[in-house]
Amino acid sequence: MTSLHPHPDRLLPADPAVRAVARRLYDEVASAPILSPHGHVDARMLLDDEPFDDAANLLVTPDHYVTRLLHAHGVTLDRLGLRRDGGPADPREVWRTFCAHWDAFLATPVRFWLETQLHDLFEVDVQPSTETADAIFDQLADRLARPAYRPRALFERFGIEVLATTDDPADDLSAHRALAADPSFRGRVVPTFRPDRYLDPAAPGWANGLDRLAASADVDAGTYAGLLDALRARRAAFAAAGGTATDTGVPDAGCEPLDAADAERIHREGLAGTVSAADAVAYRRDLLFRLAEMSADDGLVMQLHAGVIRNHHRPTLASYGPDTGHDLPDVGGYTRPLRPILERFGTSETFRIVLFTTDESLFSREIGPLAGFYPSVFAGAPWWFLDSPAAIARYRAAVTDSAGVGKTSGFIDDTRAFCSIPARHDMSRRADAAWLARLVTTHQLSEDEAAGIARRLVDEIPRSAFRLG
To answer: What is the pLDDT of residues 376-387, one digit of tens each?
Structure first.
């Protein structure tokens, strides 16, 4: 039976002199409040404040970082709680499967997050394995039954100041409003406007989605102009509910605006089910431009994720639905395709765009240089396959050379796994302390300057980049 005691200096440099500096820098920010400006936790979970069910449904099934890697090692998603038939899975069996494959996470950032959660939050002191699975499951069940482990209590324990969710424009945002009006809840939970499902008129369910959006906005979306009006109305509702940002994921960053007559024609063909593939792409690129136009008007920060193939394995999508671990990187770019938006809004005082990528070559080749010229452009933190200590260090070096630290976004956890939020932010803070310590010990920064940057990275920078106030 192997003990579980994460080392206090994990992720800090091996060289004793550099490590000593990194420790001091990490201590500056270790307990700082968490600003989480991009994530996928459900606001209603905090509103209802119901006890979590069990270890499997808390730590395994909802976390596609966990399920995708186990799936890669031959574990079917059914065994991890994602059921083809929609029926319930046995949580103890799911947990046993997870523990039996613990070594699949060796040397991955997922292992760091899981160890931190198990040890620091649930007081587990043995590593998961076939032999320890049941005992750990029972220990977590005991903790989850306690009031201190309900969602709101954990929110306070985690030190979360701001938590942004990701929401469809048609969502009624009632949970956000109720939390904001509840004097017993001291946190801040804000919605993020995610319009992806309305961008592709060739996508299944697009017309039905327009109906739902129209009902929510009380605006007829049967025309292209009506769709734009409906999106504007819902953006205003998101802002009224505390939202400060939008989030858009597209296959590419093309954003050429269409003539209004062409856009109306394609919209009609989309409703009729006769739109061509080429016209659907042109329509999606036009709407990306229009969304930037709206951000320049209303000041909502535009987050853009381009160059990802969503739901790569169609049989898995058909059986288990989206967000099940098979969104995969694609070749993409920003400098050329994003030019129409940046020529129009790149120097606007109201427009702000945060660029994310899963292709880290873009950090030094495109995103850093763009952020290093355009006041509106910010370099989004490493995301999806890149939110690891090694990639964070490469990101810092690549982006800082051309844009400095002030044009970065601050860390984002991008998670559906609520209990992993503090572990993910802790990883980022340690990685940044290690990076800054090397700059101090190579005499590129004073330690006071590095400490100031460490503090800015967890507070001022994300607060400013996402206009959190």
So the answer is: 999 999 988 898
